[in-house]
Specification:
Layout: E1 2-6, H1 11-22, E2 26-31, E3 47-48, H2 51-55, E4 60-63, H3 70-80, E5 83-86, H4 93-102, E6 107-110, H5 116-131, E7 138-145, H6 155-168, H7 172-175, E8 176-178, E9 192-198, E10 204-211, E11 216-223, H8 227-240, E12 246-248, H9 250-254
Parallel strand pairs: 1-2, 1-4, 2-3, 4-5, 5-6, 6-12, 7-9, 8-9
Antiparallel strand pairs: 7-10, 10-11
Helix pairs in contact: 1-8, 3-4, 5-6
């Protein structure tokens, strides 16, 4: 099993190197924009300037790079028939379309978060969204991450919000409320609210709250180490090899039955 890593010299990329080796797979190489920061990588690990070159030597590529690289990466992997484990979030409509087009030719596992725990939180959030009526239960999602994180709400928070919206039979874009400030007026019935906090070096914290006049139910997840994301991504890479072309999720990787 030959696994390539996009952005191999980054913080998550280095964790992926360790997890690929721990899983007994072959580290086929990686892409990087900063080859001068390759110190500490295995001596035999080749570095490539672009995805097309990396795809030549891989069965699957794990990609946690920037959204700006998604279209080019999608085209390169589809052309080379190489499976893709994609953890990049904050994609535009054009970038999402590129992922869907790639999935017509290769197996793609796309997830906002590769933690098994977060996968289960999303599933439970969908079930709660379906079971708890929006006119009685207000849904709010609170997340906190390290000070370097540049996007808010997090991709994981939005994925949880989409799960709630799916359970309610609505589109998240139609009911989302983020960053309330000043005189906002009363809370809109059926809204799904988001609050984002930043500080320190927190790997990721997410709380999903359903609150009625009489009770509150909270789903919580705490990531103690970014390694959980790398471990989950490598698990997805080992699972996806040999799968038919299509778009898969971490629920598929975990073997969960469809809701």
């Amino acid at each position: 099993m030959r696994i390539g890593i996009a952005g191999i010299t980054g913080r998550v990329g280095r964790l992926l190197v360790e997890e690929v080796q721990a899983a007994g797979a072959v580290l086929a190489g990686g892409t990087t924009r900063t080859p001068d920061r390759a110190e500490g990588l295995p001596a035999a690990c080749p570095l490539f300037a672009d995805m097309s070159a990396l795809a030549e030597v891989c069965d699957v590529v794990i990609d946690f790079t920037h959204a700006d690289t998604v279209v080019a990466n999608a085209q390169a992997l589809a052309a080379k028939k190489v499976a893709w484990v994609l953890g990049t979030t904050g994609l535009s409509a054009q970038q999402n379309t590129a992922v869907l087009k790639a999935a017509e030719h290769v197996a793609v596992v796309h997830a906002a978060n590769f933690s098994p725990g977060v996968t289960l939180v999303q599933r439970l959030a969908r079930m709660m969204g379906q079971a708890l009526p929006p006119d009685a239960y207000d849904a709010e999602i609170v997340e906190m991450h390290h000070r370097q994180k540049v996007d808010a709400p997090s991709g994981t928070a939005l994925a949880i919000g989409r799960a709630v919206a799916l359970g309610r039979g609505v589109a998240l874009e139609d009911v989302r409320e983020s960053g309330r400030d000043g005189h906002t007026g009363p809370r809109r019935e059926g809204a799904i609210g988001f609050a984002a906090l930043r500080g320190g070096q927190i790997a990721g914290e997410h709380d999903v709250l359903f609150t009625s006049a009489d009770e509150q139910i909270t789903l919580s997840h705490r990531a103690f180490d970014r390694r959980i994301f790398a471990t989950g991504a490598v698990r997805a890479a080992l699972w996806v090899k040999g799968r038919e072309a299509g778009l898969y999720s971490m629920e598929d990787v975990l073997g969960l039955p469809p809701l």
